[in-house]
Amino acid sequence: MSVVNLRGDSGDQYPRTWKPVDLEAILDGSWERPQPTVGYRDDGEGLFYPGRCHLVAAEAEAGKSWLALHAVAQELARGNACVYLDFEDDEGGIAGRLLTMGALPDAIRKRFAYIHPENPVFGVGSDDLTQVLFELAPTLVVLDGVTEAMSLHDLELKDNSDVAKFSRILTRPLSQHGAAVVMLDHVVKDREARGGHAIGGVHKLNGLNGAMYVLENREQFGIGRRGRSSLKIRKDRPGQLRRTAVPVGEGLFWYADLVIQSHGPEFAEVSLAAAAEREAGAFRPTVIMSRICKTLAANPEGLSGRAVEGLVTGDSGTKRAALEMLVNEGYVTAEISGRAKIHKLARAFDED
To answer: Which of 218, 247, 254, 291 has the fewest Cβ atoms within 10 Å of its own Cβ atom?
Structure first.
């Protein structure tokens, strides 16, 4: 059996997907909705859906590889197997981090496959990968470096048709083996323009049948220090993740905080604390608050609440909550003028 086929061969290598799908399990009530059971937060809520494709997008050094390896370590501790397709790092960096966070050497030796591809997954590459998948039956497959992987296959990351082709030749076939496939990618550099998107074709998001997360750094990671990044849901096709997340506007839901406490080069404690576990009212939409203040600074005559909502990008509910918070905290004044409440900037606001 072959995982992928880029050679254009005909015959039995292609699955017969043009036949009607059997719907009986759905109709008789025995079908179960997909559940995120691969990897988990500190409270036990899952991260990834088995047999589905996911994307984690982040700026450099936000911790996306650490997040993926945290899930790998969890799956190894459960007695499951994992495969890591690495297009960016090397075996020392990946296996070393697993040991740093407490994964057992014997578990890595027996149930973890590290693969560093340097040529496209044609012919023998497909056969080698297929053999690993059948021997280990992994619950989790990580693809670290989407941009590099697509380039290796001569595919253009900004071309939606090439993004769809990459999914057909690698990520979807991997998920058909039953594993949760997690791709790690970069976000666009412009924070205001990114909107929670990875770089390249929008099909990266549209083509996912699992979830997409955005990982945003809040406290810089480093040896001997504590770092933190917020994990937010951008897309959740099966719909099981958002129920325990906090809406933060712009279509994003705050799901957890990745915290890494480094005690030196050889040991690091990694946790994934649920957003819902934080104190009530602790969430502050600082990005939206900053946008409102910049807008008011550019309009010193003042703006109505409706005008603020129209000029500032973001979720309407979050914008209203952010404006109210700014007034309550003295950053913005609100005075009645005729039939409207006019808001003016009172003092500078620094985003946390």
So the answer is: 218
Residue 293 and residue 260 share a domain:
no
pLDDT of residue 287 exceeding 50: yes
CB atoms within 10 A of CB 278: 13
**DSSP, residue by residue, 197-256:** PBSS-THHHHT-SSEEEEEEEEE---TTSEEEEEEEEEEESS--SGGGSEEEETTEEEEE
| Least trusted range by pLDDT, from 63-67, 123-127, 334-338 | 334-338
Which CATH number do you get for residue 267? Answer: 3.40.50.300
State how far the Cα of 15 lies from the Cα of 4, in Å rounded to an integer: 11
What is the domain extent for residue 184? 24-277
For the stretch 171-204, pLDDT in tens is 998 998 999 999 999 875 544 444 444 555 455 5
Q: How confident is the model at residue 291 (pLDDT cuts 50, 70, 90)?
A: very high
Alpha helices in the chain (DSSP H): 24-27, 64-77, 91-100, 105-111, 123-136, 146-152, 160-166, 172-175, 191-194, 203-206, 286-297, 305-311, 316-328
